[in-house]
Specification:
126 residues; mainly alpha; transmembrane; transmembrane helix; Membrane protein; membrane
Length: 126
């Protein structure tokens, strides 16, 4: 399978795995929900997990791939404040954990670019 065909499926797999993890280990995600958001952190954890699973399905299907990949890019931008909160909250953790939290910040850029690339090369254009 050519790389151009694998890329959307890999992105869908990443989204699906992350989405399922929100339901399997929600406390990890609850802790990084910005306090400024209304409602409970668990609600946001479950909502973002469900969104990731829905985005994964959309990216996996050629007919909806373009729109879902663009929505995925927006999602990656939208969750950036949670990654910032994690980096701030983990500033006194052991070096390896702190480095992981800080490393998530620049990782958002290639994720957004990956999703945009999938959208650009995706099917489902009208």
């Amino acid at each position: 399978m050519p790389r151009s065909q694998r890329s959307p499926l890999l992105l869908a797999g990443l989204l699906a795995a992350a989405g399922v993890t929100h339901f399997i280990a929600p406390r990890t995600f609850d802790a990084i929900v910005p306090r400024a958001l209304p409602g409970t952190p668990r609600t946001w954890t479950y909502a973002s997990g469900a969104a990731e699973i829905a985005l994964a399905a959309g990216v996996a299907l050629p007919r909806t791939r373009r729109v879902a990949a663009l929505a995925t890019a927006g999602f990656f931008v939208g969750v950036f404040p949670a990654n910032v909160k994690m980096a701030v909250d983990w500033r006194n953790r052991p070096a390896a954990l702190r480095a992981g939290a800080i490393g998530r910040l620049p990782l958002q850029v290639p994720l957004v670019l990956w999703a945009r690339s999938v959208a650009k090369n995706g099917e489902g254009r009208s």
